[in-house]
Structures are given as structure tokens and as C-alpha cells.
Design goal:
Blueprint (H helix, E strand, L loop, with lengths): L5 E7 L6 E7 L8 E4 L5 E8 L2 E7 L5 E7 H6 L2 E5 L6 E6 L1 H10 L14 H16 L3 E3 L6 E5 L3 E6 L5 E5 L3 H8 L4 E3 L4 H7 L5
Parallel strand pairs: 9-13
Antiparallel strand pairs: 1-2, 1-8, 3-4, 4-5, 5-6, 7-8, 10-11, 11-12
Length: 207
């Protein structure tokens, strides 16, 4: 009996709202994390192999991290696994064989619908996310570090753009019309690198 080891993970990007797919082998994946990066530049998370398990760390559409631990033998026997956040039930994506993922994703439409109760002003937040989505599509959100990989964290009154490579961050207020007007005038967002050696200099005591 020949078992197919190749699998595809399909995730919804909270920034550009597009589906990003990544292939990997169940038997060759190791502790070295596989970075799940969207075409728009946003970091969706990571997956890695730990013993008999596959660990998945991905970003929820509400900006929260969700962690899964799946047995390799279960993935070998499963053609499709639907991944949802355990607390809110938000649909995150799918994991399965390449053929089934391709067929299933083509029939299934993802929709980004933030829960209005999660934000101080849902309309402002929605418009802010739309602007960031457009900037990301035009590759106008970046970090100046050598290996930029931008993720997004969404909070009730603000959005944080974080480089997962160097931890550089830009905080964007999303609470008032003034915040929205200010963001709408921005043509590009550039994150300054935040390397460990820079942090050490910041933390040195005053002479």
C-alpha cells in the first residue's frame, strides 16, 4: 500500500483576504519551521514537525494566533481537515491532499466578516483594514530588515503590523475618523528593523 505523503495547507490571509496555498511533505517536515507567507507579504504563521506530531501556528482573521497539534498518522489517513479557531469558530483554512484542496477551495468562498462587537468602531476598523489590504496588494507595506515578513494583529482600537523576522512594529490607530483620514493619505508603510543588538543598546543604563 502506497501512502501519499504530500499535503497542501490553504489559509485565508486576513490582510488581502485571498487564499494562500503551500505544499509540504508529512515525512520530510522537521523542527525547522516552514514559514507560511502570503503573496501580499503578510506572515500567516508556521508549521513544523515535532516527533509524531505536526504543529501549526497560524493567524486568525481577527488577528489572534491559533495553535494546532495534529498526529502525522492522522494526516496520512485524512484527505481533508477543516481548521477553525476553537474559541470563535472562525474559518481559518484547510489541510489535505493537493487535489482535494484545489477542488474544495474552488467551491468554497471565504468571507472576511469581523464581529462588530470586537471593535470600538467597526466601520472605522473595516475601512482601515481595507486600506491596508490595498497597500499590501501594491507591496507598499514592508520592513527594512534583510528578511521581511509582515504579520497583522488586530485589536479593538488599533492594528499592529509586525515583522516576524526582526520584531519591528508599526502601530496604527483605528478608532476615529481622524485616524482613518490620516491613514488614507499614506502611500507606503515602512517598518524600522528591531534587531536584538539594537534592543540591547536601548536597554543600556545611563552613564
Amino acid at each position: 500500500m502506497i501512502l501519499e505523503s504530500e499535503r497542501t495547507i490553504a489559509l485565508l490571509c486576513p490582510a488581502c483576504q485571498q487564499i494562500q496555498k503551500r505544499k509540504f511533505s508529512l515525512f520530510s517536515i522537521s523542527r525547522q519551521s516552514v514559514h507560511l507567507l502570503c503573496r501580499c507579504g503578510f506572515s500567516l504563521g508556521h508549521l513544523r514537525g515535532v516527533g509524531e506530531n505536526i504543529e501549526i501556528d497560524i493567524l486568525d482573521i481577527d488577528g489572534e494566533r491559533v495553535y494546532f497539534t495534529l498526529r502525522r498518522n492522522k494526516l496520512v489517513k485524512s484527505n481533508l481537515i477543516n481548521m477553525s479557531s476553537p474559541e470563535k469558530g472562525n474559518e481559518l483554512g484547510y489541510l489535505g491532499t493537493s487535489e482535494i484542496i484545489k477542488e474544495y477551495v474552488s467551491k468554497k468562498a471565504f468571507q472576511f466578516e469581523p464581529t462588530t462587537g470586537d471593535f470600538s468602531d467597526p466601520i472605522i476598523m473595516n475601512n482601515v483594514l481595507n486600506i491596508l489590504q490595498e497597500l499590501a496588494k501594491r507591496h507598499k507595506i514592508r520592513c527594512e530588515c534583510e528578511q521581511p515578513s509582515i504579520g497583522i494583529d488586530v485589536y479593538p482600537k488599533q492594528v499592529e503590523l509586525v515583522c516576524s523576522s526582526c520584531n519591528g512594529m508599526v502601530r496604527i490607530s483605528a478608532n476615529t475618523q481622524k485616524d482613518l483620514d490620516r491613514l488614507s493619505q499614506i502611500e507606503e508603510i515602512v517598518i524600522k528593523p528591531c534587531f536584538p543588538q539594537i534592543k540591547e543598546r536601548w536597554l543600556k543604563p545611563l552613564p
